[in-house]
Amino acid sequence: MNRPSSTDLAIQTVNDALGEFLAAPPEGTPSEVIELLTLVAGDPRAPLPTRLYFEAVQKSPVAISITDARARILYANQAFEALTGYSVADVRGKNESILSSNATPESIYKQLWRTIKSKKSWSGTLVNQAKDGSEYLAALTITPVLGQHGDVAYFLGMHRDVTREHQLEAKLRQQKRRIETVLDAAPVLVMLLDSDGKVCLDNHECKKLLGDLLGREPAEVLRQALQEQADFDPLEAMRDGQSFRDVEVTLETPGGGGPRWFSCSGTPASEADASARSFFGRNKDDENRLLLLANEITSRRRVVERAQLENLRARLAEQQMIHGMREALGAATYQMQGPLNVIQAALGMLKGGRADSAALMGMLEEISASGRQAMETLQAAVPSEAREAGGLVNVNELLRQVMELETDRLLAAGIVVDWQPTPVLPPITGRKNQLRCLFKHLIDNAVLALEEQGGMQPELRLSTTTVDDLVEVTVQDNGPGIPANRRFKVFQPLFVGWRNRRGRAGMGLTLAQEIVTEHGGCIVVDPDHNKGCCIRLSLRRVVPDA
Ligand code: FAD
Known about the structure:
Strand content: 15-25%
Bound molecules: flavin-adenine dinucleotide
Number of helices: 15
Number of strands: 17
Distance between the termini: 98 Å
């Protein structure tokens, strides 16, 4: 009888091990292992096409080894030899630990052994050391092969080198970290939005603004501001593939500190489709993205604004003087009209009466003529207000300017100001100077009321909000309030309800109402407010084109 050759013995070992394994794969064996080996071995109950089967295992691109129950190598294929640098002769009879490197923690081996000894498959990653001392990452699956009595007879080890994948992943992670570091260091808000406006990536500045906005997503708030203030939707620009640059918007962040200005720029980008279907480039479905940058320019704006404010202060003082004159002369002409009307009526009566009243009639006619003349002189003396061009107006901005102008007065009166602007306010069409005068008058009234009241902590609350097509402003104080029977009278000419009437012509709220009406709005004393006075005024907002 011929002695079997070493190849015959190897074929026998592989066949025995794989045949027994496929007859009863142990619990937990990955299905791909079973599939691969079934493909190689064919039906385990049928006689195995041994040489073909052995050749297939030999030539498999995966490093395959078969050990006994103590991990001593019985067989290794060509891929094993190529990957580890060990020939089969080098490793036969040696423990698989010949591949171990001290870079794999012992706990991993413990877990590996615990699993395979309980007759379950183990998959994981180890650092292996090849024959030349070089290290590589091995993605390893060990499957126990049970003998006829149910004991572990063999272990089937299959591993491949995943060092390159690991390096690529590490490089990717490193690149991501680098990008994040650069983005976080940038003093600009950077955000990448998807086609629904959801944030895919943002930086540290965005997170800071998120906190300032009490959790409202900055991308959403900026988008709304761009729509409302610049009549421009950044997501539409992205869909049209259009960039935009330096579009300025203003936001009010809760907790005061004034409005904040941002200069926004956007660049559309597309993100490559990574699905399997797109591999051959035919079914590509790239995603639209928008890189939105917002640069805070509040401090630069403030410097410009301060200069404008000084200018405004001077103009407002001049305007107030004219306003005061208009008020006084308006009151005088209004008051003169009454007696003149009476004289006119008396004249009418006398003309149809007795002849001896001729002298009296002459006198009355003289008085009436000189009265009319005085009226005309007074009317001619009423300075006309410079006709101001209308334009888009941000009410928050005007209110804040007026408050800044009034700061000294408010501080002197010890008034606590609660400023509650709505973060994004749509513009209205209006005349800025007139509206400033209006707001100043309402705030002056509130201060006056608080000064007259004395006693409790004086508080002034200003707020803005949007209701449908209206921008609503409320000026509220905790002073003495306006009794119900005076709520309409206060808007009538010459009505003065102040305790100290000196220097009051009672035309302020009349003129205020005139300004609001000219702006297509309305002004009321809130009847439901009972702790002080609350003046509500609504102004028609600019509705963006549909
Ligand atoms: P070892 O002293 O061999 O073992 C370290 C720890 O493993 C021990 O402290 C103990 O907790 C546990 N352990 C070891 N042997 C047993 C056992 N018989 N019973 C219970 N617990 C035990 N290792 C690699 O590093 N790379 C490989 O590619 C690799 N492939 C393998 C393939 C197969 C099929 C099998 C069965 C094992 C394979 N191993 C592999 C594991 C290897 O046998 C060693 O356990 C491992 O290399 C650690 O070797 P070591 O000399 O550092 O320590």
